[in-house]
Amino acid sequence: MTANTEVAEKLESYIRAQFFVADDDDFFTRDVHLWKEGYVDSTGAVEVIAFLEDEFQIRLPDEVLFDPNFTTINGMADRVAGLIHG
Amino acid sequence: MAEAAGQEAERATERQTAAPPSPQPGLWRELREAYALHERRLMNPAFWAVANYRFGVWSARRGFTPWRKLTSLLYGWCFFWIDLITGIAINREAEIGPAFHLIHHGNVKIHPEARIGARCGMMHDVTLGLSPGREGAPVIGNDVFIGAGAKIVGPVEIGDGAMIGANSLVINHVPAGATALGVPARAMPGSRGAPKRQVSSTKTQQ
């Protein structure tokens, strides 16, 4: 659980800084659909995956791009935490 | 009442930090400054546009009504022809700080509500405008460089010293010192202000 939160925290701060998410944007949460709501575009998705791979020294399969759970910060954190410990 | 006044004062200070009002150095000095920045060439259309903006601001401040109307008429006439010939439309209601440099002329549109700080540089094909559904116009800080073709729309704030890459579409706030690039604009990887990424050494060795 703690690994999840740590990953989610790092990912959230990365996305906020990289994609200029305003601090007062109430709509942006860890459960918001990042692609659908326009926070991250298609090239941004690749950047996010590259960030996760570099930051946590893991290898994400290409299929994660089509994974319906891999669209929110919490969903990504679950997947990454599973890979770190798995 | 006091609360409203407080809010107004707060807004005023906000405005000052975003775009400090020029110390009103007089039209002649402003025109000379613009002339010096624009390659000292009278035939530079970017100079016409900036000079006409400065003239428009100056004319709107005239106290004597017939004089204000006459100079405003001249400003409006020049505005129309400069817009037609060069595509540069800088409305005099916009606030632009001193030493504004329009580096290349052509197709620059600045909304009347937009505010630009001091010493900003702007290339051609730049639009500062509104965005449907979001109230407010862009506020640009000091020492900002805006690349060719960049569109900055909606109530966004560009921090001091930021750089906007060419052809970027800026719809979010850009922090001070950051380099924004892309459609929609985001922090350019590796630039100042961008989130640090550790480069994995193990993966490159594999």
Task: Give an overview in words.
The complex is a heterodimer of chains A (86) and B (206). Chain A has 86 residues and is mostly helical. Chain A contains 3 helices and no strands. Chain A has one domain (2-85): Non-ribosomal Peptide Synthetase Peptidyl Carrier Protein, Chain A (Orthogonal Bundle), CATH 1.10.1200. In chain A, 52% of the residues lie in helices and 0% in strands. In chain A, helix 1 (2-18) crosses helix 3. By secondary structure, chain B is α/β, with parallel strands linked by helices. Chain B is built from 5 helices and 15 strands. Chains A and B meet through helix 1 and helix 2 of A and strand 15 of B.
The tally of beta strands of chain B, per DSSP, is 15
Helical percentage of chain A: 40-55%
Please report the number of helical segments of chain B: 5
Q: How big a fraction of the residues of chain A is strand?
A: under 5%
Helix content of chain B: 25-40%
N-to-C span of chain A: 14 Å
Main sheet attributes: strand count, strand direction, barrel closure of chain A: none
CATH superfamily of chain A: ACP-like
CATH architecture of chain B: 3 Solenoid
Structural class of chain B: alpha/beta
- Count of distinct structural domains of chain A: 1
Number of domains of chain B: 1
Q: What are the segments of chain B in which pLDDT stays under 50 over at least 5 consecutive residues?
A: 200-206
Quick one: how many beta strands of chain A?
A: 0
Strand order of the largest sheet of chain B: 3-6-9-12-14-15
CATH C-level name of chain A: Mainly Alpha
Chart the SSEs and their pairings.
The complex is a heterodimer of chains A (86) and B (206).
Chain A (H helix, E strand, L loop, with lengths): L1 H17 L23 H15 L16 H13 L1
Helix pairs in contact in A: 1-3
Chain B lengths: L1 H17 L8 H11 L7 H16 L4 H22 L2 E2 L4 E2 L4 E2 L6 E2 L4 E2 L4 E2 L4 E3 L9 E2 L4 E2 L4 E3 L3 E2 L4 E2 L4 E2 L8 E3 L4 E2 L13 H5 L1
Parallel strand pairs in B: 1-4, 2-5, 3-6, 4-7, 5-8, 6-9, 7-10, 8-11, 9-12, 10-13, 12-14
Antiparallel strand pairs in B: 14-15
Helix pairs in contact in B: 2-3, 3-4
